[in-house]
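Notebook entry, structure prediction.
Reason for the run: the old model in the group folder had no record of what sequence produced it. Starting over properly, with the input documented here first.
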Amino acid sequence: MPRLSRILVAAASLLLLGLYVLPLWSVQLEAPQYPEGLGMYIHINTVRGATEFDLDKINNLNHYIGMKEIRADAIPELRVMPWIVGALIASGFAVAAAGRRRALYAWLGAFALLGLVGLADFWKWEYEYGHDLAPDAIIQIPGMSYQPPLIGSKQLLNFVAASWPATGGWLAGLAFALAAAAAVLAFRRARQGAMLAERVPAARAASVSASASASLSAGEPAPLARG
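New structure, fully documented this time:
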């Protein structure tokens, strides 16, 4: 694995450390009665309001339409995510230290799988909160659900819900891009090495053949080919 690939993998692992202090995802709500907006940030281990009282206000609004209260201790994924991210970081540093190309490919694949599973799980969480409504809700609109978008914005009654990666999410994306660049560099180096290995025997055979032809033309015995 090229030295640059190892540096990129180490840098990607360092960036992932930011997930322990920065939010992964942001969900913002805008409505005429809340011109300043309401929002919450999802971290790898908790959920926080954009301001001190935002999460309480969101839960109070959700109560009227029958949605469950958003509580970090009710989301089991938030208890295991710090360990999963920690394992990914530690294995990334191990890959950078070992410098093995196949280990890099495996780590990149695990990184991609973790991201896809995380997005799928977040969508499932949003779906359950938006569709599993209390039958005795104060406000009931037949056929209405309140699932926020995974990415982008969506009209929900008089609210516009917007969901986007937060700072930690963008850091994770940048870390994945660095790891992918490291894999591409390692693949190219391995391919160049394989092509060079194929050329050397061919060049040696051509040199022996040319030497033999010259010897025959001069009436000298042909040199023996050496393996």
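Summary: The chain has five helices and five strands.
The old model has been moved to the deprecated folder.
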